[in-house]
Design a protein that fits this description.
The chain has helices at residues 35-44, 47-51, 70-87, 92-101, 110-120, 129-140, 154-160, 166-169, 173-180, 187-211, 216-219, 223-235, 241-271, 276-280, 291-309, 312-334, 341-354, 356-368, 372-383, 390-393. With 395 residues, it is mostly helical. The protein has 2 domains: 7-313, Hypothetical protein af1432 (Orthogonal Bundle); 321-393, no CATH class. The longest helix has 31 residues, at 241-271. It is globular. Bound molecules: magnesium ion (MG). Magnesium ion is lined by residues 73, 77, 102-103, 196, 200.
Length: 395
């Protein structure tokens, strides 16, 4: 038996190696690791994972050392997801794999980057970060002699592809099937989906306050924040503001995690499933919050959308970021000869397979792979006339 999980400790509805749908390219079994540990290790050693350090979700990367990056976000998601997964006797290694891989396909500049690239790619099939994450692990990482990508297990790939339109699902074979059949992903994937939300809602509050974009007084309008704020105020009336905020946020995370575990546990107990596929065949997620916390979570998300994500200072950054990526895309489409050699070869390879659409897809791959700071430098190199010297054009 491989090291790692003893399958006897797992619930019958957990994903296991014995129920796994395996990898696209056959490989010898790992020694001293289970299949999902191998997947996790492959992600940690990938270039796309390292780039997460310099990519952001809401704020631009270079603005301060204390703000979350996609890398620290992915680690927070992993921490939350593993706690939940372990408590529900799901496969913790698979959960960790999905958590650290879930954002690999994001363009630079967070959602602004996604929207800009999607707009640029409109005529060529669009750009969607979930699909791009799958593309990264299936095709774009170049690390192994015998196959493209990381050749991850079906279960890891299933978890990475969180959303997918019916149109795209048709081209994805077995993996796209669940979107057409309206099935659910594994319970491990469902845990990661919720852990992602718990992580970003709470850390966006923290980062938003730190930036001065939102404040405690405004946040008191949301019940999730208010409940914990009142408790902390009562217990520690003299606490300074920074510690008070952290104390509130850690209690909010705890409140959400505990509620999610207890609600999901009760549902799973009631259904008494005997195979992970039975969870997939349900009409809805089995992992979820109680009705009460679900409503409070929606209220918090609404608050963040209105007060933080649509704050005029964030909107300005968003606009600027979109302009940068759009200008890069158009410049490369106009003349592929300004692409660095690797990116140009990639475009030409795709052109052979897909025609002109291939060039656009190759450019989208190149841009999506950029970190925030790389995109800014690349923009400067191409558009700043002060950099009109050969020396500065050398990367
Ligand atoms: Mg995320």
């Amino acid at each position: 038996m491989h090291s790692g999980y003893d399958p006897r400790n797992l619930a019958p509805y957990a994903c296991t190696e014995s129920t796994s749908r395996g990898r696209i390219h056959a490989e010898a079994d790992p020694v001293h690791r289970n299949q999902y540990q191998r997947d996790r290790d492959r992600i940690i050693h990938s270039a796309a994972f390292r780039r997460l350090e310099y990519k952001t979700q809401v704020f631009v990367n270079h603005e301060g050392d204390l703000f979350r990056t996609r890398l620290t976000h992915s680690l927070e998601v992993s921490q939350i997801a593993r706690s939940i997964s372990r408590e529900l006797n799901l496969h913790e290694d698979l959960t960790e794999t999905i958590a650290i891989a879930h954002d690999l396909g994001h363009a630079p500049f967070g959602h602004a980057g996604q929207d800009a690239l999607n707009h640029c790619m409109k005529k060529y099939g669009g750009f969607e970060h979930n699909l791009q994450s799958l593309r990264v692990v299936d095709e774009l990482e170049e690390k192994y002699a015998e196959f493209p990508g990381l050749n991850l297990t079906y279960e890891s790939r299933e978890g990475i592809l969180k959303h997918c339109s019916a149109k795209d699902a048709k081209h994805l074979g077995e993996l796209g099937q669940r979107f057409l059949a309206k099935n659910q992903p594994s319970l491990e994937a469902q845990v990661c989906d919720h852990a992602d939300e718990i992580a970003y809602n709470n850390h966006d509050i923290d980062d938003g306050i730190r930036y001065g974009l939102i404040n405690i007084k405004q946040l008191l309008d949301t019940q999730l924040f208010r409940d914990q704020h009142d408790k902390v105020k009562q217990l520690y009336p003299d606490l300074n503001e920074r510690r008070q905020i952290h104390e509130i946020i850690r209690r909010m995370i705890n409140r959400m995690v505990v509620d999610l575990i207890e609600t999901s546990k009760a549902k799973l107990l009631q259904l008494n499933l005997s195979h992970p596929d039975e969870a997939r065949q349900q009409a809805h997620y089995l992992i979820g919050f109680s009705e009460d916390v679900q409503q409070q979570n929606l209220e918090l998300k609404r608050f963040l959308r209105e007060n933080l994500y649509r704050h005029y200072r964030v909107t300005r950054m968003t606009k600027k970021a979109m302009n940068v990526l759009t200008a890069l895309f158009e410049a490369f489409m106009d003349d592929v000869n300004i692409l660095p050699p690797d990116a140009k070869h990639h475009c030409n390879d795709l052109k052979e397979k897909m025609g002109d659409t291939g060039i656009a897809r190759g450019i989208a791959d190149y841009i999506a792979g950029m970190t925030d700071r790389y995109a800014i430098v690349e923009y400067e190199r191409i558009f700043n006339p002060r950099q009109l010297s050969f020396v500065n054009l050398i990367p």
